[in-house]
Amino acid sequence: MSKIVRPYQDSDATKKEQVANMFNNISGTYDFLNHFLSLGIDMIWRKIAIRELIKDKPAYILDVATGTGDLAFEAIQTLNPEQVIGIDISDGMLSIAREKILKRNMQDKFEVRLGDSEKLLFEKDTFDAVTVAFGVRNFENLEKGLADMLRVLKPGGKAVILEFSKPKVFPVKQAYNFYFKFVTPTIGRIFSKDSSAYTYLPESVAAFPDGEKFNLLMQKVGFLNTKFRPLTFGICSIYIGSK
């Protein structure tokens, strides 16, 4: 990554601490704004990502940076695993996830824990699959986080990562940049009590090593059979690797 982008540039806290604080601040409006700002396309992206695991039939799944749990819920509905564990550094986001788990009566399938995505408190070779949606660009040390995800995967297990990327085709690139730089922060300020979060969003996407750069980074830490697939004109991408 060319530079370290933090939510609060005037703070001396680490990126990890700032990201946790940011998501605690916006947890109450996160789901609404996520779906609203993406016009609901984010839900389709999650469905496509989880379908990458259908043939693998994973029984035990770790959802890293689970947030309010949307990707994990999609995994449960589509894959019917024995258990999904979601971890996140924001207790505010996990509080929303816990409410959704109770409401959907999924306590036997889905458990969430407060934890560091770059220091997973699990033994190696534990999970059949590891998933992440819109979380890796928030890592303080991306390479370390990817390496730890690989560590906890069982041999033959698969990682599926969904993340924003940068479209390169005219006029999608120009429209995307305008929307992310001007529309997203404005709507974020209106509905969220933390305007910095929606200024950080386009900045973090711009700094993220997407496409082939991220694919090569997965290979560097040891993932095998890596590939990536752009979605919706390159606004988002799915990255896949196995152990």
Structural summary, described in words:
The chain has 243 residues and is an alpha/beta fold. The chain has one domain (15-166, 209-242): Rossmann fold (3-Layer(aba) Sandwich), CATH 3.40.50.150. Helix content is 46%, strand content 21%. It contains 8 helices and 7 strands. The chain has a 7-stranded mixed beta sheet with strand order 3-2-1-4-5-7-6, with helices on both faces. Helix 1 (15-37) packs across helix 4. The radius of gyration is 17 Å and the shape is globular.
Please give the number of β-strands: 7
Q: How widely separated are the two ends?
A: 24 Å
CATH class: Alpha Beta
Secondary structure category: alpha/beta
Q: Based on Cα principal axes, name the global outline.
A: globular
Topology readout:
Blueprint: H1 15-37, H2 41-51, E1 60-64, H3 70-79, E2 83-88, H4 91-103, E3 110-114, E4 127-133, H5 142-152, E5 153-164, H6 172-191, H7 195-207, H8 212-221, E6 224-231, E7 236-242
